[in-house]
Write a structure and sequence with these properties.
two-stranded antiparallel ribbon, 121 residues, alpha+beta, binds adenosine-5'-triphosphate, single chain, Alpha-Beta Plaits, binds magnesium ion
Length: 121
């Protein structure tokens, strides 16, 4: 199992979600974050210390997948989040040691794969 962590442009979120859905990726967490990707730096003063910071609004996606889903997930993000100009973002693939589905106490492979049958409550 892997955790795919992607930081993308907010205005690419819809396209990314659509691409992931198309690849049958289900189950993800997103959050709005601020990030620094080495772009133009401006000098600001913070408590007398001069620091260089350039934070831009990004969206972070976290997607837990079984190993065979890593490539389709990454490729979907690469294809949908790209503009070709600096700041398109990053994708990290992290090893995952354990996954638990809380409702059923299923573990790992059984837990990472969303249940297709509709159980909504
Ligand atoms: N090494 C990193 N670690 C953690 N987050 C990062 C890292 N690099 C980039 N990010 C996140 O990704 C966002 C976008 O990064 P960015 O697209 O500028 O990456 P980059 O490698 O500089 O690529 P580019 O050359 O296209 O700018 C950043 O604002 C930050 O949130
Ligand atoms: Mg950058």
């Amino acid at each position: 199992m892997k955790l795919v962590v992607a930081v993308v442009r907010p205005d690419k979120l819809s396209a990314v979600l659509e691409a992931l859905f198309h690849e049958e990726v289900r189950g993800l967490t997103i959050g709005r974050v601020q990030g620094h990707g080495g772009e133009t730096e401006r000098v600001e003063t913070y408590r007398g210390t001069t620091v260089k910071m350039d934070l831009s609004e990004k969206v972070r996606l976290e997607i837990g997948v079984s190993d065979h889903f890593v490539a389709p997930t990454v490729n979907a993000i690469l294809a949908s989040a790209r503009t070709g100009t600096v700041g398109d973002g990053k994708i990290f693939v992290l090893p995952v040691e354990k996954v638990y589905r809380i409702r059923t106490a299923e573990e790992d492979q059984d837990a990472v794969t969303p249940v297709e049958r509709a159980v909504r409550a």
